[in-house]
Amino acid sequence: MAPIKVLVVDDSMMARELIADLLADDREVRVIGQAGNGRDALAFIARQRPDIVIMDIEMPVMNGIEAIERIMKENALPILVVTARDDAETAFTAISGGALEVLPKPDIDMTRAAEFVRKVKLLSRIRVIRHIRGGTGVPRCPLPAQNRAEVIAIAASTGGPGALCTILSRLPADFPVPIVVSQHISDNFEQGMARWLNDACRLRVKAARASEQLCCGTVYISPSETHMAISHARKIIFHPRQPGDIYFPSCDILLSSVADICGSGSVGIILTGMGNDGVRGICRVREQGGLTIAQDEASSVVFGMPRAAVETGCVSRILPLGDIGPQLTALVRKQS
After folding, report:
1. Which among 224, 268, 228 has a CA at the least distance from the CA of 248?
2. What would the DSSP string read from start to end of 153-202?
3. What is the pTM of this model?
4. Which domain holds residue 50?
């Protein structure tokens, strides 16, 4: 099998060399080029067609945001953003433009080499699309009837930030149900993602805090350093990571807790992502009489998590990304 071809784009030669060194020991990966700005990256991609681009945001001549937009229009490729921790909002803007995932620069070092290489390999295999395709935004058919929705829980991984933005931006400011989100993300990035989503939505989006009371019209983003759940008092609780945990934060823990606390008033949604985290939890929502929704394959960046959920038979509806927000609005309006 041919090695995965990587292009590293960063204005810092030291940063480029560090990433190249991290990848050098794996025979399945080969850095075929480096570029110091987006313009040079575009020229290289047109000539060499790498399998994945690892890109910074702040660069001279052409920054990462513009370069990502151009790449996705001209030669769509998997893009992994590596940026400074304090530039999270810009990084998530890059995700909305087509980048698959974001990692903070402080997390890229020799102690985390194996995880970084694994991430590059996984992302390089994704068949990217020029833009995340949604539906028409018009509900195609009504969702199944259920008892009053009490809490909506959303699980997402690769491609999730952009998908969340699409869904949440289509919900009205007076949306009468709290929303809790488990999005696989690098440590300490939930604050930046929450601010980015908050700017794009009419709802209030915030990073969750321990013992916080759930409020209607608010979206709570779980930190990745712990696993989020809800209590019988409808408050946020956190569970510490355990040895052997693979996904951070756990979608299964969040969905299962919402199912067990809210029963038929629970709504579970599983979005784009690799692996099967969230499948056990969304099945629990179905077992308790709640509503379960999965993003469809056409609009998913990665159909792994939704596919695994659909194959269990526990998903009530499979919907295009653009239809999920309007369907949720229609659901809660029937309750008022």
Report:
1. 224
2. EEEE-TTHHHHHHHHHTTS-TT--S-EEEEE---TT-HHHHHHHHHHH-S
3. 0.82
4. 4-124
Find the catalytic residue in 184, 257, 296, 316.
184
Q: Is residue 137 part of a domain?
A: no
Dist. CA 269–CA 177, nearest whole Å: 14
In a domain, 144, yes or no: no
The active-site residue out of 277, 296, 299, 323 is 277
Asked about 10 being catalytic, the answer comes back as no
Which residues are paired to 170 by β-bridges? none
> Is 184 an active-site residue?
yes
**Among 157, 186, 300, 316, the one annotated catalytic:** 157
Single-letter amino acid, residue 39: R
Lowest average pLDDT, out of 144-148, 233-237, 277-281, 302-306, goes to: 144-148
300 is catalytic: no
Region for 333 from its dihedrals, namely left if φ exceeds 0, alpha if ψ lies in -120 to 50, beta otherwise: alpha
Query: Which CATH number characterizes residue 33's domain?
Result: 3.40.50.2300
Question: Do 174 and 36 share a structural domain?
Answer: no
Domain co-membership, 219 together with 329: yes
Give the helix/strand (H/E) hosting 51: none
